[in-house]
Amino acid sequence: MGIIGTIIVGAIVGALARWLMPGEQKLGWILTILLGIGGSMLAGFVGQAIGWYQAGQGAGWIASIVGAVVLLWVVQKLRSKA
What domain range is 45 assigned to? Predict the structure, then answer.
């Protein structure tokens, strides 16, 4: 997938993760896209470690959204500590 496709998928996954997570997240569009891309990467790494995905195989939509929600939760916990 090209860079434009990655950005589009990141925007969709990040927006869905923000919509699912309760509370207000003060993130702009760029951080939302990075959240979605990071969630997809996290889901891919964890999925490979568990054996769900093979090396080089991308994570699915649901796993990507779950990964983005986990990242968003971690960011909220880190921000609340500061």
Answer: 3-81
